[in-house]
Design goal:
signal; six-stranded mixed sheet; ABC transporter substrate-binding protein; Beta-Lactamase; D-Maltodextrin-Binding Protein, domain 2; five-stranded mixed sheet; 3 domains
C-alpha cells in the first residue's frame, strides 16, 4: 500500500471542478458591470453564512445595489455550488472564482496551491463557523457494523475526500490511536455522496466526512456514529478566502461580501429555525439535519479570526506534508483580519470584543453542557429543555398528548456535541439519563460508573419519571 498520496492524485482531485457541482452562470453580464464569482458548498452547512443562507437572503446583492444606487458601478453576482473545497480551489487557481468558502484543511490547500501566481493568490479573511473541540467532522459505519471504536478500523477500507476536513480528522484520529493512516487503513478518495453509496453497499467499512454528511446518514438510518471529531479536542472551522488581486481591484465588493456575511450571521443567530428551513430549501438537505448543526448549541457562527483557531490552523500545516508535495504556507501571511475588522467598524460593531468572546453566539437557555431542544411538528420554534432527562420527559408528555416530535437534540454528556436524541447512546445512572454520541464514549463513562446501564432511547422515554 502506498504510504503517501501522490501529488498527481491530489492534483487530479483538485482538478475535478465539474463533477458533483452545479453552476449558476450569468453569461449576460451587462457591459461595464463588475462581476463577482462566489464558490460555495450548499451541503457544507457551516459555510452557510457565506453561501447557502447568504444567497437565499440576497444580502450580498442588496449591499452591492446600495453601491450602485449611490452612483457606483453595477454588479453581477454568480454563485457556483460544489461538493467540496477542492474544486473551488482549482477554480481560484484558474482565476475563475473570486471569493470562496471551505473547511480548515481545504483552506490550507487553497493557500498553498494559489500562492505561486499573484493573480490567483488568496487570503483568509473571515470564519463562517467553528466548533471548539472539532465536532464538525465525524466517522460513521454501517448500522450493523461491529466496530465500536476507531481502532476497529485497522485494515479496513475507509472512504474520505482526500484534502478535506473530514480526511484531516481521520488522519489525526488514526494517528492518536496508534494506526498509521497511510498503511493501517486503505483510504479511498471519494466525493461525499460517492462515499455514502460505498458505505451503504459495503464497499468500505467506514466513511469519514465533514458536516452535514455524518448527521445526514445517521438521520436516514444508513449509518451510526463511530468517532466524534470532538474527541480530538482541536478546533475545526470553515472560512472565507478571496483572491488578493480581486480584493485589490474591487475592495468594495469584498467589503460588501463581509458585511453581508455579518447580516447572515446575525440572522442565523437570532432565527436559527427559520435559517435552517432556508438552508434546507437551498441545499436539499432535511431541515432536521440542518438544524442539528445550525441550531443553538451547534456550530458557533462567528466571523472573527480567533487566535485559538489560527493556532490550531498552524498545527494543521503538517497535514499538507502527509498527503503530498505542497508548497510551504506562511499562516501569518495568509490570514488577513483587516477587511473583517473594517466590516465590523462599518456595521457599528466592536471587533476586539467579539474576538475575545468564546461563547457560542446561539446558545440555549441554561447550562450549555446540558441544555437541548425539541422540535414539535407544526411549531415555528423549538422548545428548549434544561437537561437530557427533562428532554425525555418533554417527549414522553408530547407522545401522551398525541403530538409528533419532528426532532430532538441533546449535547453529548462527555464532549458536548449536539446530537439527535433518538440516535444517541443512552445511559441510565440513578435518577439521570445521559446521552452519548458514540458507544466508545458511553463505555468510557460506564468504566467510571459501573452501576450505570445502557438503555435504548425508546426505553428511556418510557421509563423516565415525570
Amino acid at each position: 500500500m502506498k504510504r503517501r498520496f501522490s501529488a498527481i492524485a491530489i492534483a487530479a482531485a483538485l482538478a475535478v471542478t465539474a463533477a458533483g457541482c452545479s453552476l449558476e452562470k450569468s453569461d449576460d453580464t451587462p457591459a461595464g458591470a463588475v462581476k463577482v464569482v462566489i464558490g460555495y458548498q450548499s451541503k457544507t452547512i457551516n459555510t452557510v453564512t457565506a453561501g447557502t443562507l447568504l444567497k437565499a437572503k440576497g444580502y450580498l446583492e442588496q449591499r452591492l445595489q446600495k453601491i450602485t444606487d449611490g452612483g457606483g458601478a453595477k454588479y453581477t453576482v454568480e454563485w457556483q455550488d460544489y461538493d467540496t473545497g477542492a474544486p473551488i480551489t482549482a477554480q481560484m487557481v484558474a482565476e475563475k472564482i473570486d471569493i470562496g468558502s471551505m473547511g480548515d484543511y481545504p483552506l490550507l490547500i487553497n493557500g498553498s496551491r494559489t500562492q505561486a501566481n499573484e493573480r490567483s493568490k488568496t487570503e483568509f479573511l473571515s470564519v463562517t463557523g467553528y466548533n471548539p473541540k472539532g465536532a464538525l467532522n465525524m466517522v460513521v459505519v454501517k448500522p450493523d457494523s461491529t466496530a465500536t471504536s476507531i481502532k476497529d478500523l485497522a485494515g479496513e477500507k475507509v472512504s474520505a475526500s482526500v484534502g478535506s476536513a473530514g480526511h484531516g480528522t481521520l488522519v489525526q484520529a488514526l494517528t492518536r490511536n496508534g494506526i498509521d493512516p497511510s498503511s493501517g487503513v486503505e483510504v479511498l478518495n471519494q466525493q461525499p455522496q460517492v462515499g455514502a453509496s460505498a458505505l451503504e453497499s459495503g464497499q468500505v467499512g467506514a466513511l469519514s466526512q465533514f458536516v452535514a454528511w455524518p448527521g445526514l446518514l445517521v438521520f436516514q438510518n444508513k449509518a451510526k456514529l463511530l468517532y466524534d471529531g470532538a474527541e480530538l479536542n482541536v478546533p475545526t472551522f470553515h472560512g472565507v478566502v478571496a483572491r488578493k488581486a480581486y480584493t485589490q481591484d474591487h475592495p468594495e465588493v469584498v467589503d460588501a461580501f463581509l458585511q453581508a456575511q455579518l447580516d447572515a450571521t446575525k440572522f442565523i443567530t437570532e432565527s436559527p429555525l427559520d435559517a435552517a428551513q432556508l438552508v434546507a430549501d437551498g441545499s436539499g438537505l432535511p431541515a432536521e439535519v440542518v438544524y442539528l448543526y445550525n441550531g443553538p448549541g451547534g456550530t458557533s457562527f462567528d466571523t472573527t479570526l480567533k487566535p485559538k483557531l489560527i493556532d490550531a490552523f498552524k498545527g494543521d500545516v503538517q497535514y499538507l506534508k502527509s498527503i503530498g508535495d505542497f508548497a510551504d504556507l506562511d499562516i501569518d501571511q495568509f490570514v488577513n483580519d483587516g477587511p473583517i475588522r473594517e466590516a465590523f467598524e462599518e456595521a457599528g460593531l466592536n471587533y476586539d470584543t467579539a474576538l475575545a468572546n468564546n461563547a457560542n453566539p446561539s446558545a440555549l437557555p441554561g447550562d450549555p453542557a446540558l441544555a437541548g431542544d425539541v422540535w414539535f411538528d407544526g411549531d415555528k420554534q423549538a422548545q428548549p429543555v434544561t437537561n437530557p432527562t427533562a428532554l425525555l420527559r418533554a417527549v414522553k408528555q408530547a407522545q401522551a398528548q398525541g403530538k409528533k416530535v419532528r426532532a430532538a437534540y441533546v449535547p453529548d454528556a462527555e464532549l458536548g456535541t449536539r446530537w439527535f436524541a433518538d440516535k444517541a447512546i443512552w445511559v441510565h445512572d440513578g435518577d439521570n439519563y445521559l446521552p452519548f454520541t458514540t458507544t466508545a464514549a458511553a463505555d468510557r463513562y460506564r468504566t467510571q460508573h459501573p452501576t450505570a446501564t445502557v438503555v435504548s432511547y425508546e426505553q428511556a422515554v418510557t421509563e423516565v419519571r415525570q
